[in-house]
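Lecture notes, unit on protein representations.

Consider one protein chain, 76 amino acids long.
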Amino acid sequence: MTDVGWSGLAVALGFAGVAVLAYCSFRVYLGVRRFGRELERTRAKLAPKHRELRGELHRLQRSHAPQDPGDGVRSG
């Protein structure tokens, strides 16, 4: 092959490589979009339970008054 032939082959292989990378990038993009939608659905499904548990935690914290350590063990 002549030098022009090798140049053409190199350009063709480079183009093929870029096309493969573009295809893979597009597939990753679609996967990330799908994953984002799944995360939003899961977040929406868990949000009511999260609020409920957070409210229960606040109620429990308010119901237990801080205790005076008295002559208990002290650190330091």
